[in-house]
Amino acid sequence: MGKYIDNLKFKNIHIIGASGTEGSAVLEFLARNGIKNITAHDFSGDQEELRKNFFKTHLWLKGKEKVEAFAEFLKLPLNLKLKDKYLEGILDADIIFAPSSWRLYKPNFPEILKAKEKGIEFSSLTKLYFELAKGKIISITGTKGKGTTSRLIYEILSGMEKKRRVFLAGNDRRSAQELDKISKMKKDDILALETSNRQLTIALGRSPDIGVITNISPDHIDEHGSFEKYIEVKKSLFRYAEKDNMAVLNYDNEITKNFGEELAKRGVNVFFFSRKSKIERGVYVENKKIYVLGNSVFKLDKLEICDLGDIKLIGEHNIENVLAAVLSGYLAGAKPEQIKNAIRNFRGLPHRLEFIGEYGGVKFYDDMASTNPESTIAAIKSLKTYNLPIDYTQGKQSTTYNLILVAGGDDKGMDYAGLVKEIIEKVDLLILLPGTGSKKVKSEKLKVKSENSKLKVIDANNFLEAMEIIKTQTKTGDIVLFSPASAHFQDRYIDILKKPIRNLIVEKFR
Question: Domain spans of the chain?
Answer without folding.
Answer: 2-123, 126-345, 354-509
